């Protein structure tokens, strides 16, 4: 088990802690734990989170709570009351606030997050949350370095900023130009959760429309949980392999989760729920995230029950009909 006590970290000369990049340890983990046989990885969201998200893990997710994010998996992490997570918070709005309010997250490498309301400042003042600053680009580059099996990556935008002083970045002499350049530590998360439009039971996944770093996120993480709108046959995957952006070798669990990105949008499938979006932002601003979590997470057993009891078929059909961009997406 990964815990705060045995998590391998480093501290730079500015006193900033970061997850130590260890490509060889990552390769050793993959050799020992990654499944090389074509076996079904289909399971429920409850079983997937219980099996692959441990207290103390470094957690990353692709996209956000409002746009093709793994919302149902995030809610299940909260429902299972995971603790002491270190969150890679890139391109995020609401998810980090929910994880902090629920007591799941104790550290965050920040690319960007929506900072409405007192949840973050209160947690920081009380010593329950430690921030480290990067940028959306910086966090994405760190994942790219991990996916490439490197230990660091060059970044030309963080140097000279206040964020640099609160990050794990450092300055080295460029071996080719001799000029100073900023480098970031590669990121090898313990677990990644990613929502996709299509996947087969083995974990071959397709992502359509706007994306950020779903392939890099999957290839850099030790454990990968996919939630998918639609299961497709492997023969269909093989018939057009160019559409596969996440390979089965990287994936540990596949969860069938129609409306798994709700209340966010999922391109080609449904639009976002504007009323729900307003509700969750209001809950952040008014310091009512506890009530929000009770209604949308703790009082229901899983995502299916939440959709049935709290949203309803009429609203879901409306969201499907409002998704007007359908060219290039499965029907």
Q: Topology, please?
A:
Elements: E1 9-11, E2 17-19, H1 23-33, H2 45-52, E3 58-61, H3 71-79, E4 85-89, H4 95-101, E5 105-110, H5 119-125, E6 130-133, H6 136-147, E7 152-155, H7 162-165, E8 170-173, E9 180-185, E10 191-199, E11 205-206, H8 214-220, E12 223-231, H9 234-239, E13 253-256, H10 274-285, H11 289-298, H12 303-311, H13 313-322
Parallel strand pairs: 3-4, 3-10, 4-5, 5-6, 10-12, 12-13
Antiparallel strand pairs: 1-2, 7-9, 8-9, 10-11
Structure explained in plain terms:
There is one protein chain. The protein is α/β, with parallel strands linked by helices. It has a single domain (9-322), classed as 3-Layer(aba) Sandwich (Glutaconate Coenzyme A-transferase), CATH 3.40.1080.10. It is 34% helix and 19% strand. The protein has 13 helices and 13 strands. It is globular and about 60 Å long. The termini are far apart.
Shape: globular
Strand count = 13
Number of domains: 1
Report the CATH topology name: Glutaconate Coenzyme A-transferase
Structural class: alpha/beta
Helix content range = 25-40%
**H/I helix tally:** 13
For the biggest sheet, the summary is:
8 strands, mixed
Bin the strand percentage.
15-25%
User: CATH-wise, what's the superfamily?
Assistant: Glutaconate Coenzyme A-transferase
Low-confidence stretches: 1-6
Instruction: Kindly provide the name of the CATH class.
Output: Alpha Beta
Overview features:
three-stranded antiparallel β-sheet, alpha/beta, 13 strands, 331 residues, 13 helices, disordered N terminus, eight-stranded mixed β-sheet, Glutaconate Coenzyme A-transferase
């Amino acid at each position: 088990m990964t815990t705060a006590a045995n998590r391998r970290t480093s501290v730079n000369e500015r006193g900033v802690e970061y997850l130590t990049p260890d490509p060889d340890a990552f390769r050793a983990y993959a050799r020992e734990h990654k499944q090389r046989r074509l076996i079904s990885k289909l399971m429920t969201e409850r079983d997937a989170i219980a099996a692959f998200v441990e207290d103390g893990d470094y957690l990353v997710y692709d996209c956000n709570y409002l746009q093709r994010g793994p919302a149902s998996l995030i809610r299940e992490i909260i429902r299972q009351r995971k603790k002491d997570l270190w969150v890679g918070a890139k391109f995020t709005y609401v998810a980090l606030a929910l994880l902090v309010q629920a007591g799941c997250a104790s550290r965050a490498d920040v690319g960007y997050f929506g900072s409405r309301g007192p949840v973050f400042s209160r947690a920081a003042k009380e010593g329950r949350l430690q921030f480290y600053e990067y940028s959306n680009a910086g966090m994405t580059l760190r994942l790219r370095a991990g996916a490439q099996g490197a230990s660091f990556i060059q970044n030309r935008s963080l140097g000279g900023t206040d964020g640099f002083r609160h990050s794990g970045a450092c300055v080295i002499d460029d071996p080719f130009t001799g000029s100073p350049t900023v480098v970031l530590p590669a990121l090898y998360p313990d677990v990644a959760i990613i929502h996709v439009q299509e996947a087969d039971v083995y974990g071959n996944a397709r992502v359509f429309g706007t994306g950020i770093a779903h392939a890099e996120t999957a290839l850099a993480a030790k454990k990968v949980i996919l939630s998918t709108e639609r299961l497709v046959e492997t023969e269909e995957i093989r018939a057009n392999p160019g559409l596969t952006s996440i390979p089965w070798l990287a994936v540990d669990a596949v969860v069938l989760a129609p409306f798994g990105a709700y209340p966010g949008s999922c391109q080609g499938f449904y639009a976002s729920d504007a009323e729900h979006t307003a509700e969750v932002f209001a809950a952040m601003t008014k310091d009512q995230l506890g009530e929000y979590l009770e209604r949308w997470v703790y009082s229901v057993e899983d995502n299916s029950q939440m959709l049935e009891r709290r949203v309803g078929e009429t609203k879901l059909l409306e969201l499907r009909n409002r998704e007007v961009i359908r060219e290039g997406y499965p029907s």
